[in-house]
Amino acid sequence: MELLRSLAARIGVAVFVTLLFVLAVGLPANVQAGPPQLEEPKGGGECIRPEGWMRRNHMDFLKHQRGLTVREGIRVRSESLAKCAECHTSHTRFCDRCHNYVGVAPDCFECHLFPE
Ligand code: HEC
Ligand code: HEC
Ligand code: HEC
């Protein structure tokens, strides 16, 4: 009986300490809502441009590629939106995480399908 009671007390303390820890560590992270968590690209390898360049310039890059294809009939398969989707397979867990964060909602995904 005595043993049980002290065990229960210890478990109680452990739970309490865990709760404190979760509050101390978890709350500020939630309140500050850090940068968006992006899904890891599939299949390894590297982006088709250096990562930092792509982060800053993908909008213009994509629009440029679209112009080439739609206006001039030039298709560069290795630089198409379908190509992005081979590695960034989910636009909701990659592209949209950033876009929601900065408050843009490009309509591309209505026509350009991503696998997930
Ligand atoms: C109403 C449907 C529609 C919407 C919305 C749309 N596209 Fe397209 N897009 C097309 C069609 C159709 C083509 C021509 C495909 C072809 O001929 O190969 C195309 C071609 C492209 C291409 C070149 C081919 C390829 O697969 O990469 C790019 C890049 C592209 N669009 C980017 C975009 C981007 C970026 C957006 C959002 C800002 C967007 N598109 C929105 C229909 C759409
Ligand atoms: C061969 C696979 C592959 C292809 C194809 C690819 N990417 Fe990437 N992309 C990556 C990798 C790997 C990274 C590095 C980010 C990481 O490790 O999380 C990356 C990074 C990025 C980033 C920066 C993410 C960040 O954390 O800031 C953007 C934006 C991006 N890619 C957009 C695109 C677009 C748009 C296309 C198509 C035009 C594309 N990618 C094609 C693999 C790819
Ligand atoms: C690292 C964050 C990040 C990732 C990942 C990312 N984007 Fe973006 N995207 C942005 C930012 C920031 C803007 C520009 C917002 C602005 O100009 O106000 C933007 C803008 C765009 C635009 C232009 C929207 C407009 O209304 O002009 C397109 C198109 C676009 N992104 C496509 C994509 C696609 C496709 C992917 C996934 C393959 C992707 N982005 C992934 C951050 C990201």
Q: Mind explaining what this structure looks like?
A:
The chain is an all-alpha fold and 116 residues long. The chain has 2 domains: 1-30; 52-110, no CATH class. It has helices spanning 2-32, 51-72, 81-87, 95-102. The longest helix is centred in the first third of the chain and has 31 residues, at 2-32. The protein starts with a helix and ends in a 14-residue tail after the last helix. The structure holds heme C (HEC) (3 copies). One heme C is lined by residues 38, 40-41, 43, 45-48, 51, 54-55, 58, 62, 79, 83-84, 86-88.
Number of domains: 2
Distance between the termini: 56 Å
Strand content: under 5%
Give a short account of the largest sheet: none
- Count of β-strands: 0
Quote the average pLDDT: 83
Proportion in helices: 55-70%
List the helices and strands and how they pair.
Layout: H1 2-32, H2 51-72, H3 81-87, H4 95-102
Bound molecules: heme C (3 copies).
